[in-house]
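Two quick folds needed for the group meeting slides. Do the first one here.
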Amino acid sequence: MITEAPTATQVVGLDGAPQAPARIPGSLSLVLPAHNEAENIEIVVQKALKTLPAFTDEFEVIVVNDGSRDETGDIINRLAAEDGRVRAVHHPRNRGYGAALTSGFDASTGDFVMFMDADRQFDIADLALLSPFVGRFDIVAGFRKERQDEFHRKLFAETFNLAVRVLFGVHMRDIDSAFKVFRGDMLRSLDLSAPGALINTEMQAKLRRQGASLVQIGVNHYPRVAGSATGGSFRVIARAMNETIKLWWQMRSYQPPVSSPQPRGPYRLGDLIVGSGIGMALGAIYGIVKRRK
């Protein structure tokens, strides 16, 4: 059964009267990664098709079916056949959240690229909160004002946000929030490799090195009403931790493109902290071995 998503925050003037949202200064590509979202995907796409004309005259909705085992792929194909503004991208097998986003970014053509999860925990109408800043900043990042998730997911998110600040120098309130708008040419210049949840960290770490400008805006987050979440499973968390160490190592040799606005060098504080941690661990091991002799 198709039902409407919760009503988003309205844009109001000083007199309290509703106002039209700020227009985006160019075309927009909306990327929706979807894995087993048959209960949600049509609602999300139809809402986007109704809402986005208020922000721009030229847009596309790119839905990436990441190896779904339910009817997600068939629904996406039907929506694309019914409306030329919808584009379907299919992964024959599940390749992960990061790979789904990367495929969507590669397929995008917009001056600006937005991505949003397809589970109805965000409302596309809340783009009105971000649109006044699109074109003024390279990254307009929404952070969840009140995250509607289980406690262990919130705890891991806060711990991970701290680790990202320490290792990569990326200071974001909500690194993994799936409600962000990027300058399209800058996003497509990135060579992204993270297959899973670390994709947000990889994007922000590389864009920081390029000197991208960033603004963060609070957005609404709604409870999941259909389908099941997988991003907070312990298997996914363990994989993200492993990928984090690999990304830190890769970023030590990363070279920003020559076209970067303000290229930056590696984040040396992260190197110092990791080096100190390794040194302390080796010292502890040496002490244990020495006592056993």
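Then this one, please, same format:
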Amino acid sequence: MRTNTGIAALVTGSIDFTTAGGSAMRAAVNGAPLKMILNITKKADLWILAQKNIQRVEDLRGKMIGVGGNWGTQFYQVLEALKPSGVDKDVQLVSTGDVANGFLTLQQGSMPAVALTPPYSILAKRMGYRDLVKTSDVIPVSPTTGLVTTKEKLEKEASKLRRAIRAVFRAVDFARTRKGETVQFIMNQYKMDKDVSEAVYEAIMETLNPTLWLADQEVQIELNRIAGLARKPLLCLLDAVLDKDDLQSLRAAGAVGLLTSAANVAGLKEAVAALPPRRQRRDDRPVVSLPRGQAPAEHDDDDDDEY
């Protein structure tokens, strides 16, 4: 199921869960009643591979890159991974529908480069296509895959939720501890040789989150990313009164507004009032008059980085 279709189906109640964690978090920030209850992978599992005549990332300037989906998580990962080389604004991202089609366009020569996940990234490298960027080397945290459900199901279908959580824990534990059987599954599923399947297994294990949990700092990194991608102040929809630590994390992530029910307003106001004051921005700091003839010290712009 396509990511956007899965999110829509989950919101309307047509399905119970989705694993599209990255897209679900962006939808939740924008008001969708979604909850990520487990995080399965917290590293990007995407590689940018190019035709054999392209030697460097900088050679992608002015070229098209095929990406699966339609301006979903993979599009954002590609742009973020290209930023260090300075070509993120000089490439054209084109949807290939999914990574299988992306792999096909690479083989056909119709795309100079494509973004691929395992097993297609492994197969493309084995075929000699140029491995330009491993996105997990550039993006420290990217919770792309997780178990996501709706607030309503979380409240009303606890037994189903517990069964789903147990199933995910068992599946992850099986994959981590029984390599041989997992590799055999990959071989059967994708009709691949054992050595390729083992390489796919290792790539998957590298991105797997063994605890199925995200630390507060990792959640904050993703919130910062979502706010930056949206290019607008971050508004957060809350269904409960948060404590001081939660509010501090939202502030640090760039949240400028909180949306909540009328019943929570009074408690939320008290919690916000109890927060320590922000550090003053340079423009808000009091002006100090210096005696004539005395030059002011040079201002350290780093002071504006934290407030």
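Slide caption for protein two: The first strand starts at residue 18 and ends at 20.
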